[in-house]
Amino acid sequence: MQATATVLVYSDDSNTREQVRLATGRRPAPDVPVVEFVECATPAAVLKELDKGGIDVCVLDGEAVPMGGMGMCRQIKDEIFMCPPVLLLIARPQDAWLATWSRAEAAVTLPVEPVEFAGALAALLRQKRLQSA
Fold it and tell me: Which PROSITE patterns is this protein grouped with (predicted)?
């Protein structure tokens, strides 16, 4: 197993980014690597980090301003070669269809519920590990 996994967190709200970090802890599950975070508050920062490479999973805030995570997800799925899997944070369970439209691999509702979030993130990290093997 790799030593660390890099998770990009995009939200203009520092409280949302903190909720993600706290829900994840050092690792979201015992069978996945320790997580290191790259935090982004703007769409430009997300694109810059993804262009650098090395991101294992993206967590995008669907309520972010000026560009929501759903639009950001759709853009990176179109523009980034071998785009990492995306976990979308959505406002309401009824928004799940929009997460599907955006091509996110998973979605959880805000505010972040730690057990649900950690489970979804761990599943994407496992999926990424299998694809890399």
Answer: RESPONSE_REGULATORY
